[in-house]
Amino acid sequence: MYEGNGLVGTHHPPSRQRLITVHRPAWKQKAQYIEVGGVRGKVEHALAEARQDHVRSGLRRRKRSPTTPRAKSVKMGIDLDRHHVRDGHRKVPKSTNPYVKLLVRLYKFLARRTDAPFNKVVLRRLMMSKINRPPVSLSKIIATAANKANAKTNEGKTVVVVGTVTDDNRLLDLPKLSVAAMRFTASARARIEKAGGEVLTIDEVATRFPTGANTLLLRGPKNARESVKHFGFGPHSNKKPYVESKGRKFERARGRRRSRGFKV
What we know:
Number of domains: 3
Largest sheet: 5 strands, parallel
Number of helices: 6
Distance between the termini: 98 Å
Helix content: 25-40%
């Protein structure tokens, strides 16, 4: 047996011995150098002793005093419904108009401090893009608010449009209306005031009707744009084609009429 350098092994000198180093965990560090050709039982015994020493040292650790202050608590986060699923709605307006930003601040306060769903809807529409805030014509307002079926129900109510109110020159008679909107065209404003009605802004709605009582919230047709008519895929989707011209020689071949083979 060779016992040089504190190593117990075979008769081979240290230069011919194969050594391995045992790193983590800590209880293995006691048996740091183990000969590969050594006795397995001795190695297991040394490891068991090191493990027991590690357990005893853990039991001797000093416990935290109840008077010791705990670490500073972390604020709670947002409770998400599903993991990695984001809400696509805007949380801040994209508009650089300072008056729109002031309206958003106003209705954020009203939506938080009141239980009225009206304020939450107005806040969401204030932050929408222009495509999602289509204009509303005077004829649309009359057809909804002042028709024969709903005239008594909507009598005295203020029509609120989070968008633009436009004129309709096909409309001959305009009754007295109270309309609030973000913007009015010049002719629409003149016709409403000439009929004895009143034109309000959205911030005036907040002062008069903070909960949205006695109001009628309207919005325009979102899919009435020309570009929406071209959306769709494949035949029988009734999408509008992009044609160079509407003359005699365009879009008249097979697939467009029965006399040219087939029509889809």
